[in-house]
Amino acid sequence: MKNRLTVCASHLITLPGAPDGPVRAAIADAREAVRAFDPELVVFFGTDHRRAFRSVVPTFAVVLSATAQGDVAGPVGSYDVPSDLGRELVAGLVAAEFDVATAYEAALDHAFGHTARDLLGSISAKPVLPVFVNCASPPHATFRRAASLGRRVGEFFADRRVLYVGSGGLAHDLPGFREPETGVVLSEQERQAWIKDVNERARREGTVRELVRSWDEAFLAGIAGTSWEWLDPIGVDLVERAGNGAAECLTWTAAWAAGGAGLEVLAHEFDTSGRAVAVSAR
I want to staple 230 with a disulfide (CB 3.0 to 4.6 A). Which of 19, 37, 151, 222 is the partner? Predict the structure, then answer.
């Protein structure tokens, strides 16, 4: 019996206002795959939308204690984080020359919460070890570096029955995150007002990027196999080709490499942005 399963999904795809199409339906198939696999541990590669990590934004971090912020109608409460195992992972990564940070506690936003709830039923249903990947505050890691980290995590947990999750993407553009990171802490009300203002200004100034589905298709073709040849070209001119939100696919890349197998795309949709659900062979 295989001891690893990988599931990657865009987040916010089950909100009441989200499109009612193949991607929403596919999350139910992914949830059933998780239920049937019954992991002893979930290693969740996720990001942040400048909520959890403010004064310091690490490139990668292993989180030892985590709560959910409940933003964007997300879940609240505490994750069941195996902190001792997290400490061991940090030590193993540092020994393998990955300069990963230790986050002793973090209030994670919807980048983790929605997909955890969608796949597990609740954020505390299984032991979850969050691995933060910076995607929203440039500079961020390359796709190859994210894959290297993921592969090492997979090697570390080779003897355990692990579900690897990547959450975010696909191609989309977020005008608010074009502005340089400042570390300023905003209330959720202030944040939403700021996002509305930035988006309206981008529309007035005509700076909203019109994206096409070709980047999504290239990325999904890459994770369908096990070759690493696609990792360097996929990141070239990323913002121009796929929007700054496509950096969230670093989480998919890490999960793909951790699982060590190609992913089957259950569903992919593209209108003005891309979203998808993919799983490894079951």
Answer: 222
Name the catalytic one among 49, 114, 140, 172: 172
C-alpha distance across the termini of the chain, in Å: 10
- Assigned token pair, 135: 């995607």
pTM exceeding the 0.90 threshold for the entire prediction: yes
Residue indicated by tokens 């003897």: 159
Catalytic (active site) residue 172: yes
> What is the distance between the alpha carbons of residues 44 and 29, in angstroms, rounded to a whole number?
19
Determine the Cα–Cα distance for residues 67 and 11; give it in Å rounded to an integer: 17
User: 139 preceded by cis ω (within 30°)?
Assistant: yes
Q: Considering 11, 49, 110, 114, which one is annotated as catalytic?
A: 110
User: Can you read off the two tokens belonging to residue 278?
Assistant: 């993919």
Q: pLDDT tens across 220-271, in order?
A: 999 999 999 999 999 999 988 898 889 999 999 999 999 999 999 999 999 8
- How far lies 94's CA from each of 89, 90, 149, 153, 236, in Å? 9, 6, 11, 11, 28
Taking only the tens place, the pLDDT of each residue in 96-105 is 999 999 999 9
